[in-house]
Amino acid sequence: MRGVRAATALPVAVAAVLTLVVTTGIAHSGQPASPVAADAGSPAPPSNSQAEPVRPGAVIAPSAARAEQEAAVAEVYAAWKAAFVRDDCRDDWYQVYSPDAYEPYVAEGQGYGLVITAQMADVDPDAQEIFDGILRYVLDHPSALDPDLMAGAQDLSCNTTGGQDSATDGDMDIAYGLLLADAAWGSAGAVDYHALAVTRINAIKRSEVHPETNLMELGDWAHPEWTPQLYWGSRTSDWMLDHFRVFGAATGDADWDTIRLAHQDLIETLQDDYAPDTGLLPDFVQDTGTNPRPAQGQFLESETDGYFSWNACRTPWRIGVDALNSGDPRSVAAAQRLDDWIQESTGGDPDQIGTGYRLDGTRYGTGSDAAFFAPFAVAALSDPDSQEWLDALWAKILATDVDPQRYYAASIQLQVMLIVSGTGLTL
């Protein structure tokens, strides 16, 4: 979950921005097309999130009454907000606090915060104020390599620490969150959310998509001369197929279809060749230009870089939500492989889901964590035979309290609840 990028002989100015300590999915967004006003709060058009979401791949849902599901989401959101949303650095900022990351504020967390608060637009009357405060924080901490992306981490004083470069998944969630905000509040007010989203999407393509493989890079710092091995690496939890579809629709850029298909091809290859009995993906993939395969230990973060560990634990969610929202048969098949294996390996008992697996399904992590068990609920939604399993997972999620020292698990748990319950917006 935490790691240090290997030192590389670089010019001093470049090396200064490549010393960022990498954590579980750090990534960011950068300078605005127009600045966000500190008093942004002009009346917004009514949210369209009351419309029934269209989810072509949804074949089951939790058996609990919808009102009960919505109440559960609101309760977990309130606990998440109380534990992790802060405004103690500057009056016009909000930040998502990450006590279990390597720095107290990471871009991944700000991306999660934007997605969550936009999704709660119809529930929390303060959602837009918090969203805009997080957005101002994001815009005020740009990457030094691409100012339309965000620097990776800040200390308790909200000063950027280590390097000032990006990592990919936070950037993607920041852009996605801006599109959710446009859907929730419109872009005719003080902030043009849609324009900011397009700026970030274009920056992601420019600086975080490999020009030859069309796979997501680890960040804007991945470079053939500076970090040659890592330049040909990718993090599977950055393979957000549904985001790629939404980015293409928002920009009219057909390249996002090419990017999505490259990731779907590699998901299929990895499942077939390296995890035929489980469908599990590794945290990282190396040698993407020649022979893509699970990364060796210490490729970027730890000895488990080639295992289903603290990054890849998100892949059942990321693949599952594309299956849910698009109905794409390839995503449905990939999600169902994961769903079939986890049910069989646990005997249908979510308490048996571990916190780390080798790709053959051998469990090496002890204990239970929402970062691992909650994402499997999204993978279950497209499987008509998984109703009992989904209900068991939902019950376990509801029985899991928000731990104020575990931002990562709580943020994943809440986002899964939003998806599974159908609360909020579907783009």
Automatic annotation (TrEMBL):
One of its GO terms (biological process) is carbohydrate metabolic process. Residues 32-54 are annotated as: Disordered. Keywords: Glycosidase, Hydrolase. InterPro entries: 6-hairpin_glycosidase_sf (IPR008928), 6hp_glycosidase-like_sf (IPR012341), Glyco_hydro_8 (IPR002037). One of its GO terms (molecular function) is hydrolase activity, hydrolyzing O-glycosyl compounds. The keyword Hydrolase applies. The keyword Transmembrane does not apply. It comes from the Bacteria. Belongs to the glycosyl hydrolase 8 (cellulase D) family. This is Glycosyl hydrolases family 8. It comes from Actinoalloteichus fjordicus.
